[in-house]
Write a structure and sequence with these properties.
The chain is an alpha/beta fold. About 30% of the residues lie in helices and about 15% in strands. The chain has a single domain, classed as Metal-dependent hydrolases (TIM Barrel), CATH 3.20.20.140. The protein has helices spanning about 15-20, 80-85, 100-110, 125-140, 155-165, 175-195, 200-205, 225-230, 250-255, 260-265; strands at about 5, 30-35, 45-50, 50-60, 115-120, 150, 170, 210-215, 280-285, 300-305, 310. The protein is globular and about 55 Å long.
Amino acid sequence: GLTTCSEMAFDPMFRPLLAQLHDQLTVRLRTYEMSTPALHTDASPAEGDDMVRQVGIKIWVDGSPWVGNIDLTFPYLDTDATRTIGVVPGSCGHANYTKEQLAEIVGTFFPKGWQLACHVHGDAGVDTILDVYEEALRAHPREDHRLRLEHVGAITPEQLRRAHGLGVTCSLFVDHLHYWGDVLVDGLFGPEHGERWMPAGSAVATGMRISLHNDPPVTPEEPLRNISVAVTRTAPSGRVLAPQERLTVEQGIRAQTIDAAWQLFADNVIGSLEVGKYADLVVVSGDPRQTAPESIADLEVKATFLAGRQVYPKAG
């Protein structure tokens, strides 16, 4: 079944609420706790059960392309769009942390067994966090860490190869292309950088296992559209952005199912239908493999099941 990934993190104050709602949930949750200046969590790695489990700590190298605060090696364009969002002409954005601050966060949590998931869009920010991850892995080697990078809009092929060599895995927010592909090219970054935004094709070409995610409320949760967009890379105007970065339908399905579950350390219980795993699945109105790629997003979810129990639509 589909493994829906969202680029989200929670404040530890909500942990009691999650516990209270545990038995009412109709989806499985794998959670990431926000890092704070206290550099402390009361949780332990992999705490929880197959329904709700905290698997990691979340950090933010930079911010949003739509605000102008992502950490780039190249400047934003000087356009009506960038002036509207307040970008100073020639700005390459900025990071939220210094390398030393990121090293302190990663150096606190990684040796304790935590997975780290790091929000980063800008290519300069990617270099910084890969340096930090590499130093942490050198100091505290771990065979199966699945360190994550989230979004990676401007990541380069060279950075993807480096990330994969370190065992770092990426989750891509390809839905940007569906909603704002034209703005990325014409308003923010130009063809050289804007068309390659969210380079899923280059990621899987390295051998990396990737996932596709959404970021509510920026976009809705729409895993079927994620697959469609990753396969077509079509902007609102109808133009195709960097066709060499397209995925096949099969690659898109993997990124939304078993490989997404793998990133969450949940592939032993969900992500594919096989003996020994929960019967978590969705029933859709057509086979994505036999559907025109641009129409995959329009497939209707007829039913969802959790451990073999139908939870949508609810009976009665």
